[in-house]
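for the recovery benchmark. tokens below, seq after
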């Protein structure tokens, strides 16, 4: 799968977002090592705390199906479902990604249907809390 195709999957997922409160739609597409893509969108809730991000939706879908080996993630978002610049993952999503992905894990921050910035998880979360910190 190409990076552009993965970005397109994230854009398609953004169309399923449920964001009646913030109006900010986010889509994510997580490429597993076996080639399968797990998509996610943000799902808001009136009480806000139970809201879940697109990135975590994609990760939890994969993990719930027994998949824990990932190759790349694409993320896209924007107010009213329109892409208006990059949409980096929130801190909670960064921490969840660090549970399953190595520091050099590639993340595509989609700026337009055919344009994205490629960063690593370490770029976004340089001092991740890890299992070693719990010992």
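predicted aa per position
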């Amino acid at each position: 799968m190409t990076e552009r195709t993965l970005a397109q999957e994230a854009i398609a997922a953004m169309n399923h977002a449920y964001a009646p409160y913030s109006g900010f739609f986010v889509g994510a597409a997580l490429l597993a090592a076996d080639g399968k893509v797990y998509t996610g969108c943000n799902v808001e809730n009136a009480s806000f705390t139970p809201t879940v991000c697109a990135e975590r939706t994609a990760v939890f879908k994969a993990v719930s199906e027994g998949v824990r080996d990932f190759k790349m993630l694409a993320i896209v978002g924007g107010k009213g479902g329109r892409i208006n610049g990059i949409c980096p993952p929130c801190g909670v999503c960064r921490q969840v990604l660090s549970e399953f992905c190595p520091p050099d894990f590639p993340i595509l921050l989609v700026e337009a249907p055919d344009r994205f910035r490629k960063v690593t998880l370490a770029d976004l979360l340089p001092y991740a809390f890890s299992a070693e910190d719990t010992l």
